[in-house]
Design brief:
480 residues, alpha/beta, FAD/NAD(P)-binding domain, 2 domains, nine-stranded mixed β-sheet, five-stranded parallel β-sheet, 30% helix, globular
């Protein structure tokens, strides 16, 4: 443990690679290391391998501002995104700083040395590393497995049961009947892709979700690339899409009926009003839960063509030959896919302590949605829920580097968000306005947010930028 790094970044996915590039550009003198538990870069886009895995955000905003997306599809496949991240890590000299197959197990802060001591697990055992600053680019769900609630009768099924997060490489679903349990982004991606080779793919959902049809390619991109070149076109489209995402979300919340009409008319045109009313008309308002994107309406074309169908209703049990619903309907299946969601965690499931005292993240307050009350020299990456993840991450990373430069200017070795004594804040959920099941289940793992800055986690781009204006706001305590 002779080397003490200025920064250790945990995770080599979208957030970690972005942080490393920003660090090299904004704080070029800082030494850093990236710990990645997998064998390749990519994070989400290396873990998930189910058929059709793709982004549900356009790559002009999910991609990096410093690395123009030049591929034809705006809604990109998981393979294309992983390749983009791999290319980025090589182009910007990040790959040589990554230690693969290394999982952060524990991080302990010492006030005596003003540094973090990290316990890192790898194939040969454990290693101890030291860092002055810790950046958690670990995402917000467990890599150990997805949310996998037991279903009565599951053991009696004669076929194969898989969870979407643990997709087997050798699963042959050609000419098979496949039942996909779930109605979120994973299901609406899987079903049309399975339907291309399966005898039939059926999405079994307890209740409908909002599904938004969007073109897979951007009709303006090719023209703008010819006129402005790849970088100019990327910047123009990125700004346009950023504004559109924010406006669309605001409009959906302010006038939900108009938003529903827009969604429903597009669905009705392909599968008809009867199917839409039964299977794609939720009981809640738009963006009470996340809205799923369907590129080029592939799900609805599969339903219209008879290659896919939807069964809406409560599951009674799994039988030897499929899934029985409580209303008596039976969905025959050779393969059952449980697209039942994520297990949400913070910090990659590592253990944290300060001078030997354990840190319970769920009992801390978030500082600007990027740091924790009372926890020194630590930033965590959490993007937008209602827009592209990367848009917020890049603002966070720019702010973080400004904090590091400010510390160097004043000679500080420690920075801690401190809640002033006697401050009374209402305990609001870390993410408000979106009530998705995976967020409700994970509430205890997230820090609280209050009702006033800087103890909030804004999910609006303009508000995020305003909140991150100052690196010396009287709340960050800098110490020598």
């Amino acid at each position: 443990m002779d080397t003490t790094y200025d920064v250790i970044i945990v995770g080599a996915g979208i957030s970690g690679i972005s942080a490393a590039v920003q660090l090299r550009r904004g704080c070029p003198g800082k030494s850093f290391l990236i710990l990645e538990m997998r064998d390749r870069v990519g994070g989400t886009w290396d873990l998930f391998t189910y058929p059709g895995i793709r982004s549900d955000s356009d790559m002009f905003t999910l991609g990096y501002a410093f690395k123009p997306w030049v591929e034809p599809n705006a809604i990109a496949s998981g393979t294309a995104i992983r390749q983009y991240l791999d290319d980025t890590s090589r182009e910007f000299g990040i790959e040589e700083h990554i230690r693969f197959g290394s999982r952060l197990a524990a991080a302990s802060w010492s006030s005596d040395s003003n540094s973090w001591t990290l316990t890192v697990e790898h194939g040969e055992g454990t290693t101890t590393l030291r860092s002055r600053f810790l950046y958690l680019g670990t995402g917000y769900y467990s890599y150990r497995g997805g949310y996998n609630p037991p279903i009565p009768g599951e053991d009696s099924f004669a076929g194969t049961v898989v969870h979407a997060q643990d997709w087997p490489d050798d699963l042959d679903y050609r000419d098979k009947s496949v039942a996909v349990i779930g109605s979120g982004a994973t299901s609406v991606t899987l079903v049309p892709n399975l339907a291309r080779r399966a005898a039939k793919a059926t999405m079994i959902q307890r209740s409908p979700s909002y599904v938004y049809i969007e073109p897979a390619t951007d009709p303006e991109a090719a023209r703008l690339r010819e006129e402005l070149g790849p970088e100019g076109a990327f910047s123009r489209i990125r700004l346009r899409n950023l504004e559109n995402q924010q406006k669309t979300y605001a409009a959906a919340r302010q006038d939900p009926d108009a938003f529903k009409k827009l969604i429903f008319e597009a669905i009705d045109e392909i599968v008809g009003e009867e199917i839409r009313k039964e299977h794609f008309t939720p009981a809640y308002e738009p963006w009470d839960q996340r809205v799923c994107v369907v590129p080029d309406a592939d799900l609805f074309h599969a339903i219209r063509d008879g290659r896919a169908e939807v069964a809406t209703g409560q599951i009674d049990r799994i039988t030897e030959t499929g899934v029985l619903l409580r209303d008596g309907r039976h969905v025959d299946a050779d393969i059952i896919v449980k697209a039942t969601g994520l297990n949400v965690v913070m910090g990659g499931e590592a253990a944290f302590d300060i001078d030997g005292e354990p840190v319970d993240i769920g009992r801390r307050w978030t500082y600007k949605g990027l740091a924790l009350s009372g926890v020194p020299n630590l930033v965590y990456a959490f993007g937008f829920i209602n827009a592209s993840w990367t848009l917020r991450i890049e603002v966070v990373n720019e702010y973080w580097c400004r904090v590091l430069r400010h510390m160097d200017r004043i000679g500080a070795t420690r920075v801690t968000p401190e809640l002033p004594p006697g401050t009374a804040l209402p305990e609001r959920p870390y993410v408000t306005g979106v009530d998705s099941g995976y967020l409700r289940r994970a509430a205890r793992h997230f820090p609280h947010q209050g009702d006033r800055a800087p103890w909030t986690n804004p999910q609006n781009y303009a508000e995020t930028q305003r909140l991150l204006d100052s690196v010396d706001d009287g709340v960050l305590r800098y110490e020598h």
